[in-house]
């Protein structure tokens, strides 16, 4: 519908008679240029002339509001007048035109805050802001503070500069004209600018580092600038917030330390002193390997260089043939200052191949006389029998560093080959029957650009251990029990069978089909067997009667035997004391060296991203949240991405999130696994807003307390993970305690781990069963007397061995002569060759994180003998001893290695070596298996057709053992026993329980380090994280709110929340924090210490007796002392001053800013949305029932998410 318009007047003159003609126009503009044509008698054109039509109500208005000052100041030719409350044509106004305009009207004020020093340019927009500049000059102020007029636009816009304020105040903006003064409804705020910190604290000298400056009131004022000394730091005002300001560092001539950071906002100037930032040398790239990838990218390339940690977000790029156009980029993960890992960027392989063909065709058509053209054709012509491939130049995008963008002069190009192709299982249903052997998956081009480490095979959510990868075949070992019927991320399949998925790198995924384990049919006993069992029962009764008759005769003999054993026990106790003292002295020497190294080098702490993945999603290495978030920003936007942005807004609504969690937990099929997954995904999503995550956690904990106090046993709250909030609490604590672990408590955990490892390796350890002479766990105790002696090996590493550089935990340089010197390593003569290699690698790379070391199966042990000869030692070879169907693993004693033997590690030659079931089969002596690293190889079956076995087919099934061979069948042993050295043993076997005293020996040796660790984490000092005080105060508040008078309940809540839910997890799994390898034997010892810590946090007294488990008895005398430490810790935390909400919020904001962009939150939202779809009906019902959710129309907003995802208009929802 068109609005009515006022008319314009035109006088038509010249040769015609004058007449007043009224015209109108529909356009909503103040002026309209028109052309008037005069026609006489309908068909005679007389002439035309231009006319100007106008509307006074538009000329005299601003922002759709009538403006008196604009109206009366218009040119006189318009004859506009202020008629009542509108601007109208003067001759059409029925009222007397007004000569004075009303008071000012204020519509917009920006900015609404500025520094107390003033100098802010405030823009005020509105109407009736004076007829001229003099009307408002001197009549603008903020409260009582004048604002100097800088710029004036008649009636509609004023720009003024604020004056200084004595302190922080909030005051209205006041403007006056000839009619009076007007006061704004919103207030302008004077704020005191504060600077707190800057991150990161160092960057490359070429600049480009994005600095995050934290403080208060950083987004106020009209002009913001930052300087690093005299160097400008370019401010990004569009991403500024009240507590964070972003700026990009500029280039400098060389490395330097910045004395101060200066931030200026208008007239306010603040300085962050004490060397807040340093320029370092630009990073360099020294090595990239491997230089081969499949087209879809995602293969992890290892990059070595210098100063790599000075870049926050390094990227790897591949360039097209022109050397300028970037084909694709990926974000790298910095491991240390000298090492980072980069996924290979994906490329359009077919397009590149076609481009090469067209280029080759063009060169072929050109004259071939030129030697250069012949060389080009030769380089572009594909070789026969070689898979298609293209090579592209690589470079690295590291802030403003130009030297690493072009690596063509220093490195070969990255070669891309076709993606591997894995074939699905045969059959329409894609179901394969698994009968207990290895799983073989067929395909093509499987190992062109990948090896076993690049391929991950999952059956359901369980991993299938890849043992062999050939060009057309992959072999892996499935788990012993059929996994649940899901895909790799836990989504149930329609067939109810686990889905087999092959992932190559990070980007390539192949669903192969479903795997069904063959079910063994129940066996029915025949009548003959039943009769035999009956006869055996009768015989057993007769034998029991005979034993009773002989008992009295043997009683006297038993008493004599008892006295003899008593004497042996006294002697054994004395030996244990001396052994414990000696072992403790030796361990103290080793630990002193370790402590000195830690003070100079630090601990091998994992980076934050890896730490979060291990805690949140243990065992998961290819979660969707690990995708690069920047790739989503630069790529095409999909409906799914837009929908997830709206879903994120719902997640950030506290009422929706609480209703969402409550709805999920009320569903019967919402399992514990689902609760853990949802909690982890929520915390990942909210990592950028930890302040909000803390508020949600607080509300959920109060809800959990309400449920707990209504039960019979409220002290069980937080004991187990039975709700989403309990896992959220664990994850929240993990994020809040990371820096405390890294800088304070982590060293005591690492020292305890090393002490246990050193002590365990001082005695024999069975490579197959993992039983050890020195252990805290009865289940992992070696209950045999193994004769052994120490052997000192002299290590010589020559130039032919391509060593991985010795990298310390930080950046402590080592001289080249230190790398080539002869190193001594102390081992046992009963160690297998793999165990010896492991100890040698520990000695060579004691300052190197475990992930950067060579693996045991990548090297061979070479024994240097007289006259320049050498022998390659291996776990199994032609000289291995075979005893009654059992093969004994080779040891140093087997080869006759004596004291001061000279050995070296050499690269393994993998020729003709195939891996099957984790074993390496070959006729060459330098090909051995990795028993030490695979605990599933117990009693592995090896095939050997040369020794015994079935004479018809030449196959011998030999079982391997190391120190102790499992018991033999009576029919094979004829009542005889085998000793550990392989000889027939006719002496009575020793009582195994006698060796339990070795538990006491081990405990006495490492007890000091257990106490030191407990004392570190149970001491209240200035290093205690605020999260602990906040959590304990929250539990105290909940106890007071629900009138909990029993102190044991509150004690149990605190124990369940921090010691049991946080510390016990890291005691059992130090590899969640450090880059280390944890053996099964060490793991069992850590479990005993974790159980001791749990008992120390309990107020319940457990009565111990002779039948109590050994792990309970081992530290029984120490637990009262530990309990007192726990109680004192709880009391000291309660006595600490309460943390203000502002300080806690600031801590959470800093935590959020330090980890922005680590994970792909959109991927996490997609995983959460799976649960929305699953429980859509129940969620919509609860959103409609809850009053506040209904007022906010949260159900409708959730429905809009589904509409956007499906590409529909929101109005249609």
UniProtKB/TrEMBL annotation:
Gene Ontology biological-process entries: motor neuron axon guidance; negative regulation of cell adhesion; positive regulation of axonogenesis; regulation of cell migration; regulation of cell shape; sensory neuron axon guidance
Source organism, top-level taxon: Eukaryota
Residue intervals passing through the bilayer: 529-551
Localisation per UniProt entry: Cell membrane
Keyword terms of this UniProt record: Cell membrane, Disulfide bond, Glycoprotein, Membrane, Receptor, Repeat, Signal, Transmembrane, Transmembrane helix
Gene Ontology MF term list: semaphorin receptor activity
One Gene Ontology cellular component annotation held by this UniProt entry: semaphorin receptor complex
Family annotation (Pfam families): Plexin_cytopl, Plexin_RBD, TIG
Domain IPT/TIG: 103-191, 192-280, 282-375, 419-511
Topology in the lipid bilayer: Single-pass type I membrane protein
Signal peptide (from-to): none
Gene3D superfamilies membership: GTPase Activation - p120gap, domain 1, Immunoglobulins, Phosphatidylinositol 3-kinase Catalytic Subunit, Chain A, domain 1
Family statement drawn from the similarity comment of this UniProt entry: Belongs to the plexin family.
Protein name per the record: Plexin-A4
Organism expressing this protein natively: Daphnia magna
